[in-house]
Amino acid sequence: MTKMLKAVLQKKLEMSELENLCSSFDIIGSIAIIKIPETLASKKKLIAATLIDQIKSVKSVFCQVSGVEGDFRLRKLVLLSGENTTITQYREHGCVFKVDVMNTYFSPRLSTERLRISKLIGPDEVIVNMFAGVGTFSIIISHNNKSAKIYSIDSNPIAYDLCKENIQINNVVGNVFPILGDANLEISEKLRGIANRVLMPLPERARDFVDVAISSLANNKGIVHYFAHVGADNKKIALKEGLKDTSETFSKFNHKIENVRIVREVGPRFYQVVSDVEII
After folding, report:
1. What is the CATH number of domain 2-85?
2. The whole model's pTM is what?
3. What is the residue-wise DSSP string for 221-244?
4. Are β-strands 222-231 and 197-200 bridged in parallel, bridged antiparallel, or unpaired?
5. Which H/E stretch holds residue 44?
6. I need a surface site. Which of 5, 24, 36, 196 has the fewest CB within 10 A?
7. Residue 152 CB coordination number (10 Å)
8. Domain ranges of the chain
9. For 31, left (φ over 0), alpha (ψ -120 to 50), or beta?
10. How far is CA 40 from the centre of its chain?
11. Residues 39-80: pLDDT tens digits?
């Protein structure tokens, strides 16, 4: 995306302006989301119009004006050019998702991780997805493993409604079960001791939910995919910090860390990592 962005704008901006432009942007269906520094505020409309002109799939360009915030992990977006809608259709790994980029959390940058985890699922597994959003992890797992049952929990009513729609769109009714509510309460009241595997794709707060995640495992044994954020100067150090964080987080449980990997860089010297942890 970095090369694409600079390529389409190289005839419209000065070299110094290109250097100040944010290094990447997201395309989610027909919507492009970009961060634009204040030094380029006067060029926002030009940048947006150029993206729409040069990237045929893009119908709307939004500027991200806040970080991911609040319990629902939402970001503030301002329309710069194109159609005034935050709802789009996004395709990934043979599935189609209806997404609201303003009112639900969604990142196309987890695409590789969603496919990786889906390929780890064995026959007839029961999975609890604690922070499911619009259902991407859950539905991709079901698409690749028809015998799996996935309980897909989210506390955001808009994400829950879109998850229900996406289950219908992708013909996984009866395999993915959407649940609206707080993961702590829903597992404690309905899902204790049922799962072979738990997904925890909430790096900001996953550590706080480890006890209840493990309580959802049958006989308190199984696999937990634990996401975290770590600060580090490079990827090699980030992996070490991810291993350390995971070891501390699961220290009171009999466990084995099977794998630690970097999902993505989320900021300067700041990484998202995932650990595959076997509770034994």
Report:
1. 3.30.300.110
2. 0.93
3. -EEEEEEEEEE-SSHHHHHHHHHH
4. parallel
5. helix 44-54
6. 24
7. 32
8. 2-85, 104-279
9. beta
10. 29
11. 888 889 998 998 898 889 999 999 999 988 989 999 999 999
